[in-house]
Write a structure and sequence with these properties.
Blueprint: H1 11-30, H2 33-58, H3 67-84, H4 88-112, H5 117-136, E1 147-148, H6 166-188, H7 191-201, H8 203-208, H9 213-239, E2 241-242, H10 244-247, H11 250-263, H12 270-291, H13 299-314, H14 320-326
Antiparallel strand pairs: 1-2
Helix pairs in contact: 2-6, 2-9, 2-11, 2-12, 3-4, 3-9, 4-9, 7-9, 11-12, 12-13
């Protein structure tokens, strides 16, 4: 039986979720162009953060090279569109298949030969760097000069080819983020979700209970990779240009995992809260620095570092668990050992 999103959620939580959803739906009606751009970026990081959270927060497999799947998804869909005229809604299936195959390869090599912990994280970084170097020399995809998508001036929005205004991209990104939230809820409350939590807490104990550790880890990696690639597709069609150094670099991987870490790894709401906090505060800081005429390269990275340091020191479980308790959503919000409590 498929669990409902409302299962076990306090009434106050449902009201807050409804109010938050209405606010997001109405945002383009009152937001300026700049604010809408920031919200698109927030939703992007919320989406890819949820995808990464499946792998790390649910199954306990640390990936520091998740930009690999963003890049594969972006280049696969963009190349099909540029060279063959294949629309993004068909190209995304190729993107998902490419990312899933890469994730399955990394997972097989790691889990079959017992590579885990920090060594698995290093393996993910290595594959992302291999892709960056390879795509940098792949002339059919533009190489280091970049791959550019044609941009037309449309009077309206063309949802079939993802050509249109920021408002259209905002609603597409909002739909993806909401869908990812529902999918994560269903996965977490399913049998495979409980298996992931058992593996995360103690792989040896889970194996002793008869859980197929290899299969469950592989499912987590493949699902996370495929989901992340969809973020890459939207990235390509929104920015209309791709550079290997831009999409595969390790700094991109770090950026997309900061949201879940700040918000709360292993929680459902944590990646969304973290994305909103980090992105909005970083953009606000950039605007303040620009207003006072100060140009400090790397200021965002320094800000991210201070945020991460503060969370590690004072909120090791992330922002969302104590925030959830403060909002009266139940003490189980901060229980990192219970699948039921990670809402």
């Amino acid at each position: 039986m498929i669990p409902l999103l409302t299962d076990g959620v306090p009434r106050r939580g449902l009201k807050l979720l409804a109010a938050f959803s209405v606010a997001l739906l109405a945002a383009p009606l009152v937001a300026s162009d700049y604010l809408l751009t920031v919200l698109i970026l927030v939703l992007y990081f919320a989406y890819v953060g949820q995808a990464w959270n499946i792998m790390m927060g649910f199954a306990g497999q640390l990936s520091l090279g998740h930009a690999l799947y963003v890049g594969l998804g972006a280049y696969a869909a963009a190349a099909l569109y540029v060279h063959f005229g294949v629309g993004p809604w068909l190209g995304l299936w190729v993107a998902m298949a490419s990312a899933a195959a890469a994730g399955a390869t990394i997972g097989f090599l790691a889990f079959r030969f017992g590579v885990g912990g920090v060594y698995f994280a290093i393996l993910t970084i290595a594959f992302a760097e291999f892709a960056r170097i390879g795509f940098d020399h792949w002339s059919w995809l533009g190489g280091s000069a970049g791959l550019f998508l044609p941009v037309a001036n449309y009077g309206g929005n063309d949802i079939l080819t993802l050509r249109g205004s920021p408002t259209m991209f905002y609603y597409v990104m909002l739909a993806m983020t909401a869908s990812a939230f529902v999918l994560c809820h269903v996965l977490l409350r399913s049998r495979i979700g409980y298996y992931w939590l058992a593996i995360r807490e103690s792989a040896d104990a889970a194996q002793a209970l008869g859980i197929d550790i290899f299969r469950c880890k592989m499912v987590a990696v493949v699902v996370s990779a495929a989901m992340t690639s969809l973020g890459g597709v939207l990235f390509a069609f929104y920015y209309n240009n791709l550079f290997p150094e831009q999409v595969f670099h390790i700094s991109r991987s770090i950026e997309l995992i900061l949201g879940p870490i700040i918000g709360g790894i292993g929680t459902l709401v944590g990646p969304i809260v973290g994305a909103f906090l980090l992105t909005t505060l970083a953009e606000t800081l950039s605007e303040i620095m620009r207003a006072v005429g100060i140009d400090l390269p790397g200021i965002k990275q320094v800000f991210y570092g201070f945020c991460l340091l503060g969370v590690v020191m004072f909120l090791p479980d992330g922002v969302w668990p104590p925030l959830g308790r403060w909002l009266g959503l139940g003490r189980e919000e901060g229980d990192r050992g219970s699948g039921e409590g990670k809402r």
